[in-house]
Structure formats: C-alpha cells, structure tokens
UniProtKB/TrEMBL annotation:
The gene coding this protein: secG
Protein family per UniProt: Belongs to the SecG family.
Function summary: Involved in protein export. Participates in an early event of protein translocation.
Keyword terms, alphabetized: Cell membrane, Membrane, Protein transport, Translocation, Transmembrane, Transmembrane helix, Transport
Membrane topology per record: Multi-pass membrane protein
This protein's name: Protein-export membrane protein SecG
Low complexity bias: start-end ranges: 101-113, 123-132
C-alpha cells in the first residue's frame, strides 16, 4: 500500500509540473499578444521552445505510464474485497410453465385457461396494494 501512496504523490507532482510547463509555453498563434523575446537572453526563443516541448512530451509520457501503473495496482488492491449482499432480496423463485405464444393459433376457437395469480411472498411490504 505504501508503494501505491508513493506513486500517487509522484503522479500529483508530475501533473503539477505538466500543468506548469504547458502554461509557460507561448501560444503558436500569438493570441495572447506577446511580442518577440530578447534573443540575447540565456536561451534563444527557438531553444526555449524546443526545451519546453521536449519537457512536455517527457512529462506527458511519465503521466500516462504512472496512470496505467496506478490503475493496475488499484485493481490488485481492491480485488480482495467481498461483495455486500445485505440488501439482496431473497424472494422465492416460483417455477413457471413455458409460455407457448402459438397455442391460441392452433385452436382458434378455444380460449386459454385462466391462470390464478401467484401469491406474494410473506415479507413483501406491497402485498396488500394489489387487492385495492
């Protein structure tokens, strides 16, 4: 469980770094109205763009790999739990004869025999509502 927690923290740090790197990048269309940078700075505009693009690709790949690893670990961690069946209703299953949809077509003059309604289970809270 501690490895799962560690990878979750690393995943959050990678996600924060990915958001930061994406927000630092300049838009291609220049829609923000930013002018050209100073070419005599630490890095040229082309070098900074290449560095940020490479960093974005590496962080995105790391994010996807961590997501897959965490999903696989979550399946292993949660697969040992039992299903909660406390709300399952245990009504008795009554055997029924298979319905023949063509029974009336073979004997058109004979009406099918009426069937008696099946009684409601003793623990059914809505048993008395059908009689009203």
């Amino acid at each position: 469980m501690s490895l799962f927690l560690f990878l979750t923290v690393v995943q959050a740090l990678v996600a924060a770094a990915l958001v930061g790197v994406i927000l630092v990048q300049r838009s291609e269309g220049g829609g923000l109205g930013t002018g050209g940078g100073n070419p005599s700075g630490l890095m040229s505009a082309r070098g900074a763009a290449d560095f940020l693009t490479r960093t974005t690709a590496i962080l995105a790949t790391l994010f996807v790999v961590l997501s897959i690893a965490l999903a696989a670990m979550a399946v292993d961690v949660s697969s040992t739990r039992q299903l909660d069946t406390s709300l399952q209703r245990n009504a008795p299953v009554l055997p029924q004869a298979p319905a023949d949809p063509l029974a009336g077509a073979a004997n058109p003059g004979v009406a099918p025999a009426p069937t008696a309604p099946t009684p409601a289970p003793a623990n059914d809270p809505l048993a008395g509502s059908a009689a009203q």
